[in-house]
């Protein structure tokens, strides 16, 4: 009973925090809430960008300096979509997945996003939505967990990719799944690198972190393993 009340209170608090942020920032973000979670329906992804894939491959670099400028909710959504968004019938996604088992989970650590309260959000590919996991700006905690790579905290957003290996292991066995899932994280990250570049932003894969600290900051369940962090922002 006590636990239910706490859940309910958290849900109400989250809904208010998100509603306030959405009101404060004029974006096309739509708010939907239920009793336990606050969800954000992201603006539809744009598939009409004018940069060619060749030009973004040619200019892609790992970028570790950010101006601190906020990004829009649409931009944050676009980045998440490029990594794991739904792009085809049968829920097929932007990045390939062994047997379409989709072991990856994608999180948005929002620090400076117009129209979105700072917090940790889980990306829900179905419906292109965000679900609030934890309110508050977690960027410094993430940077500290990433062996104190302080530049990470300067990015307006950090995309975190984790994996549930069991989803793929159930079909291919543990050994093969380890290989496949790690490859998938690379596919998703490369999409995000190229999408960032096409939007005039920069990112850098961060694999050097303390697993258990990142796990704690992101509040990951035991079956999820953190694999990559991708801070993204406008570069000088
Ligand atoms: C799996 C992986 C993990 C990485 N981890 C880090 C990291 O923790 N910190 C960092 O500054 N760069 C990291 N990088 C970025 C590499 O240093 C970078 O890709 C390399 O220097 C080549 O530069 P480029 O990406 O600009 O071509 C990582 C790259 C990969 C692929």
Structural account:
The chain is α+β, with helices and mostly antiparallel strands. It has a single domain (2-234), classed as NADH Oxidase (3-Layer(aba) Sandwich), CATH 3.40.109. It has seven helices and twelve strands. The chain has helices at residues 2-24, 53-59, 73-84, 139-145, 165-172, 174-198, 211-218; strands spanning 30-33, 38-41, 71-72, 86-88, 92-93, 104-110, 113-114, 119-124, 129-135, 157-163, 201-203, 225-234. An eight-stranded antiparallel sheet has the order 1-2-9-8-6-10-12-11. Strand 4 (86-88) and strand 5 (92-93) form a beta hairpin. The radius of gyration is 17 Å and the shape is globular. Residues 1-36 have low confidence and may be disordered. The structure holds flavin mononucleotide. Flavin mononucleotide (FMN) binds at residues 61-62, 64, 149, 204-208. Flavin mononucleotide binds at residues 61-62, 64, 149, 204-208.
């Amino acid at each position: 009973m006590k636990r239910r009340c706490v859940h309910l209170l958290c849900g109400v608090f989250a809904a208010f925090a998100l509603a306030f942020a959405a009101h404060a920032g004029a974006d096309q973000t739509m708010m939907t809430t239920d009793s336990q979670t606050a969800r954000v329906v992201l603006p539809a992804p744009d598939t009409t960008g004018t940069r060619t894939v060749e030009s973004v491959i040619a200019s892609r670099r790992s970028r570790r300096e950010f101006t601190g400028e906020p990004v829009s909710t649409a931009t944050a959504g676009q980045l998440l979509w490029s990594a794991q968004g739904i792009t085809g019938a049968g829920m097929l996604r932007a990045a390939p997945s062994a047997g379409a088992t989709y072991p990856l989970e994608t999180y948005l650590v929002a620090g400076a996003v117009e129209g979105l309260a700072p917090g940790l959000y889980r990306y829900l590919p179905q419906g292109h939505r965000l679900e609030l996991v934890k309110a508050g700006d977690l960027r410094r905690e993430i940077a500290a967990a990433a062996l104190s790579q302080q530049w990470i905290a300067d990015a307006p957003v950090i995309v975190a990719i984790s994996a549930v290996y069991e989803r793929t292991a159930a079909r291919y066995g543990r050994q093969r799944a380890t290989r496949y899932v790690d490859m998938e994280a690379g596919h998703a990250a490369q999409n995000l690198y190229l999408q960032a570049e096409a939007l005039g932003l920069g990112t850098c894969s961060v694999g050097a972190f303390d697993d258990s600290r990142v796990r704690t900051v992101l509040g990951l369940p035991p079956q999820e393993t953190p694999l990559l962090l991708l801070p993204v922002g406008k570069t000088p």
